[in-house]
Specification:
The chain has nine helices and five strands. The chain has a five-stranded parallel β-sheet with strand order 2-3-1-4-5, sandwiched between helices. Helix 2 crosses helix 3, helix 4 packs parallel to helix 5 and helix 6 crosses helix 7. It starts with a strand and ends with a helix. 32% of the residues are buried. Bound molecules: adenosine monophosphate. Adenosine monophosphate binds next to helix 2 and helix 3.
Amino acid sequence: MINLLFLARPGAGKGTQAKLIAKKFNLIHLSSGSLLRQEITAGTELGNKIKDTQITGELVSDHLIIELIKNKLVDNPKAEGFIFDGFPRTLKQAEALDKILVEKKYPLNLVIVLDITAKEMMKRLLSRAKIEGRQDDNEETIKARGKIYDQHTEPLIEYYKKQNKIINIDGDREVTKIYDDLDRIVSQL
Ligand code: AMP
């Protein structure tokens, strides 16, 4: 079993890489942002609860997102492993994930940090907005999401450093170059 976590600012390309690596190694890609968007589109009770939060770029509650991810793990008992993308985003979520994975006896193997600057993040998300039309890809919300990342999510790097799980990858390169690095690293696990 291989469990990987992609940790990065919004727009670093973690979704793209997570998808490619999941396909190559037959892992289940769990993107918390996509899962939440699916709930909103489907108009579920959870979707209606979080709709406004997601549009403003604020984080949805730890409790809701932890339950959502837990359910996805339960739904896939035969998985060869998972790629966590966008979850955990707070210390509380990280502790909850550790606890869940320890209970399953398959802790995280590696935490991949894709490094990009705040300036690059803005540039990429504004160009993504033109293609995908996501409601939270506008200048004001992007700034808010960057601040939230710095405040709540970046501290997770320290948390996982203590577990010797961090690997830094330069995210400011072509998709194929980043993928080649990741492919090599994951192949060695
Ligand atoms: P993403 O697609 O990962 O950029 O996530 C889009 C939005 O979904 C975020 O700005 C948050 O509002 C919400 N979200 C995604 N993942 C989480 C999480 N782990 N904890 C709280 N909110 C989340």
